[in-house]
Structures are given as C-alpha cells and as structure tokens.
Amino acid sequence: MNLDSLNHWQQLSFCAAICERSLPNFHLFCELEERPEQYQQARKILNKVWEYLRGQLSSMKNIEKQLEVLNELVPDPAQHDHFGAYPAMDSMIALQSCIQGILDDSIDDAQAMHTMTQQRLLEVFALQQQDKDDSELWARQLNFEQEVVDLVCAQISHADAIKKLIPLSRDNGVSQLGICIED
Questions:
Q1: What is each CA distance from 177 to 49, 54, 153, 161, 182, in whole angstroms?
Q2: Is residue 179 part of a domain?
Q3: Backbone Cα Rg of the chain
Q4: Where are the beta strands (DSSP E) in the chain?
Q5: Distance from C-alpha of 71 to C-alpha of 63, rounded to nearest angstrom
Q6: CA 56 to CA 135: how far, in whole Å?
Q7: 88 and 26 Cβ atoms separated by less than 8 Å
Q8: Nearest Cα residue to 145 out of 119, 173, 114
C-alpha cells in the first residue's frame, strides 16, 4: 500500500486512525504500570486531533504544548521488562505524528505509520511463531487500512469522513494486536 499519494488531510486522518486503533495497547501498558492518568492524557490529545480533522478545534493555542506532554508519555522499552512497552511506544509515536502534522502541513507520515504498525504486528507473530498469512489479526489489519484509505478518499465532507472513521478505528475497543480494554 503506497500512501504517499494521499493529500495532507488524508494522511493525517490515516495516522489518527492508526493511533486510535493502537490506543488500547497504550491503555493496557498504563494499567500494567499503574499510570491511568497517562492514558487519560493521551485520550484527550487524540480527541483534539479528531476535533481538528473535523474542523471543530476552536483554538490551536495549546496544540504545540501537547508535544511536550506526549514526550513524557512515550515509554522507553529499555526501562520496562515486558513487550507491551513497544506497542505502547508505537501508539504515542503515532499520536506525536498527528500533532506534528497539525502543526506542520509538510509532515506526511501515513506511510511511516503504516510500516511501523505492520512491523510491530509481524514481531508479535514471530514471538508467537505464527505465520501472518494464517492470522485473522493480519487480515483484519489489512482490511482496516484499506477501509481507512477508501473512506478518506471518498467524495464526502471531512466532517462526514471523520464521523465514520472514528468508530471504524475504535473497532469496538480492539487494537491491531487483538488487545481489548474496557474504558
């Protein structure tokens, strides 16, 4: 899948969808580390990204400050003794990408987010000694990515696209790794 041909709004929407879908990974990490406030901060920041994409963000005033907050939320896997730090880190990197894309319209990270997400999923398969072609998670991820691209490329308003994209990305609270946390 080549995402470089998407315009900036489409790429930013793709990155937000990837971030939303990966947020349960960060949520689980925060639960394991007993840091629920970090998940709540990430959730608020991602909600601001969705507001921006819908054209409903009333002020850009605090967007730049969100990068500082996010820098504190990105886990360093070297400081943790469980694999969950890696997908949690990916989730926050995707969120950083969204905020940077809002601040600088020359940043188009959809292809990088696509690659990062698929690579992490392949790592999980390797740990489980599972072939991607035999995995429902792999098929779900590919279908999800295609649905996101189809939606952001559809001839509908940005607000309507985002209205459909959010529930698609939340996927009933299941991440691309199959992790589900009830809010």
A1: 23, 27, 26, 25, 15
A2: no
A3: 16
A4: none
A5: 13
A6: 38
A7: yes
A8: 114
pTM over 0.85: yes
Whose CA is closest to 146, among 3, 7, 26? 3
State the CATH number of the domain containing residue 35. 1.20.1590.10
* Domain span holding position 112: 8-171
pLDDT-based confidence at 134, cuts 50/70/90?
Answer: confident
Alpha helices in 55-109 (DSSP H): 63-73, 85-103
pLDDT at position 107 is 84
Residue type, 27: H
> Which residue type is seen at 163?
K
In a domain, 182, yes or no: no
Q: Is residue 14 part of a domain?
A: yes
Per-residue CA distances from 94 to 87, 112, 129, 177 (Å): 10, 9, 27, 15
> Which amino acid is located at 121 in the chain?
L
In-domain check, residue 180: no
